[in-house]
Amino acid sequence: MGESLRTQSTTTFGKAGMKPLTFLMGLSLFWGLCTNPFADTLPPSSVTPIPSLGITSTSGPISQVTPNATGNTTPVPTIPTVVMPPTPVPMSVMPAAQLPFHMPYGVAVDAHGNIDIADTLNHRIRQIDPDGGVTTLAGSFGRDAADGENATFDLPAGIALDTSGNLYIADSGDDMVRKMNRLNQVSSLAGQAGVTGANNGNGSDALFNNPWDVAVDSGGNVYVADMANNMIRKIDPKGEVKILAGGTTPGSADGTGTSASFNHPMGVAVDSTGNVYVADTANNVIRKISPKGEVTTLAGGGKGSAANGLGVAASFNWPTGIAVDVSGNIYVADSANLMIRKITPLGQVSTYAGPKITGTDFGLGNTPVNPKTKFQPYGVALDANGNVYAVDPFNNLIRKIDQN
Fold first, then answer.
1. Contact (CB, 8 A) for 318 and 265
2. CB contact set of 195 (below 8 Å; sequence gap of 6+)
3. What percent of the chain has pLDDT over 90?
4. pLDDT for 394
5. Which of 21, 162, 280, 366 is the most buried (most CB within 10 A)?
6. In sequence order, which residues have a C-beta less than 8 Å from that of residue 183 and are 6 or more positions away?
7. Which one, of 351, 323, 349, lies nearest residue 337 by Cα?
8. 0.85 exceeded by pTM
9. What is the 3 state secondary structure string of the chain?
10. Among 135, 88, 61, 101, which Cα is nearest to 374's?
11. In contact, 319 and 283? CB cutoff 8 Å
């Protein structure tokens, strides 16, 4: 078992509670799940989940699905009927360490191989240690964004670790960015609970609108995919929030700062030289922001398909999570294509994994044996050895894909 950067605790902070179990309520612009073209593959509510603790068996083959081509860069969302996986035991009586994952999204891996998870529909931050043991670090449901030992979250999504082991959390339903230190104490970094807007300012004077992902650089600057504002925001170490690029009107224009535009970006990553990479989800492209704020389209031509190639000759279909390795290679959760894609620093796009995969699954209950359930990644992260971790929310699994 690796030593965590934080003090371990098996206590679930706060009183357990549940928001209505759907991503279609309380998060009006969670486009990726609302427009999920594979909703009919979700486990039916009549299937009894098989509780399991730690590492599950390796995944079997996953059927290939023809990509769903949108054909343009601004798809109009439709709201399908989504059958959510059932919770096998009421959360109020389930021990924290046995609580099944419920639509996890964010993932980050520390230097010791501990995997931090934003367990989104459980409104908790969880950790999987290298031996497969699962710990609840913080959280319960609440719309007041309570800090401290009784911290609450409302649909925590993307997460990121800094070099000191602090965890930053896109608390999407609360419209805030939160911070959890090495002792699992939660504080509010920026935004106001339940107050949407696009104001710049310090701390609670700044406003967000469904912030969906975060990244942090070596200087302690936090980058936020402010999804429903169509912006990338930057929070400096003093808590000052500004617009790095984009504006409230969706679009796909390259340019500098606010002259550029995005369309519901759901993923953000930063490399060692300060370049920021964005999964521009509804545009089906990957964007790059230089340290000077210059936005360019790195890969993808806007058409919702799965072509490999160089730059705009390649295509994606609902890219969400994004991560960058020490060599500058970018990994993308290409969710509607059921793939992990890789982009070299020169913009060459290839398929890294999927749609049929095998690998190590880290699961915690709520996962029925259903060979027809497809691998559909949303969050993605890398460990120190270059292994890729993909969050598969519809299967309630974290999948590890090694370099081979």
1. no
2. 175, 207
3. 62
4. 86
5. 280
6. 6, 7
7. 351
8. no
9. CCCCCCCCCCCCCCCCCCCCCCCCCCCCCCHHHHCCCCHHHCCCCCCCCCCCCCECCCCCCCCCCCCCCCCCCCCCCCCCCCCCCCCCCCHHHCCHHHCCCCCCCCEEECCCCCEEEEEHHHCEEEEECCCCCEEEEECCECCCCCCECCCCECCEEEEEECCCCCEEEEEHHHCEEEEECCCCCEEEEEEECCEECCCCEEHHHCCECCEEEEEECCCCCEEEEEHHHCEEEEECCCCEEEEEEECCCCCCCCEEHHHCCCCCCCEEEECCCCCEEEEEHHHCEEEEECCCCEEEEEECCCCECCCCEEHHHCCECCEEEEEECCCCCEEEEEHHHCEEEEECCCCEEEEEECCCCCCEEEECCCCCCCCCCCCCCCEEEECCCCCEEEEEHHHCEEEEECCC
10. 61
11. no
Six token digits for residue 41: 């593959």
CB count in 10 Å sphere of residue 281: 28
The pLDDT tens digits of the residues spanning 344-369 come to 999 999 999 988 655 445 554 334 33
In angstroms, the Cα distances linking 281 to 229, 309, 355 are: 13, 19, 19
Tokens linked to 202: 């310090």
How far is Cα 119 from Cα 261, in angstroms, rounded to an integer?
Answer: 30
User: Residue 214: which of 183, 191, 247 has the closest Cα?
Assistant: 191
Give phi and psi for 9, each to the nearest 5: -150, 140
* Greatest mean pLDDT range, 25-29, 30-34, 188-192: 188-192
Report residue 378 as tokens: 């949303």
